[in-house]
Amino acid sequence: MAAATATALSRVPDVEIDDGGVFKYVLLRVGAAGGPGKDVVRGHGWAEYHADLFERTAAELAQQGLGCECLGGGRLSHRPEERKIHVYGYSVGFGRADHSVTTEKLKAKYPDYEITWADEGY
Fold this sequence. Notes:
Layout: H1 2-10, E1 15-17, E2 21-31, E3 37-44, H2 50-62, E4 67-79, E5 84-88, H3 99-109, E6 114-117
Parallel strand pairs: 1-3, 5-6
Antiparallel strand pairs: 2-3, 2-4, 4-5
Keywords: Cytoplasm, Hydrolase, Protein phosphatase
EC number: 3.9.1.3
Subcellular location: Cytoplasm
């Protein structure tokens, strides 16, 4: 069972965000009960609330036998024409994500971008 969980976990992308714009994001810890987990970033402009991102991702992960918990949220300003992403703000419902963790995940996905973060702003 642990191998199946590890395989399912390896299929979950670390980062899924919109191609550009300013939008809400959540930092989630994904895993199976009692097993290893990993942190992932999800950010999309369609989400009116951070909970929308969490609920849709939780439903998708449940189909793969995985669960998740929300570690917090914030906003992303993704400017692909400038190769920049700025991480900031917080979620009223989930609190502030650890933007330094989010930044490291984004740097791995976008190695040629300038990625910054700040606790200020909403």
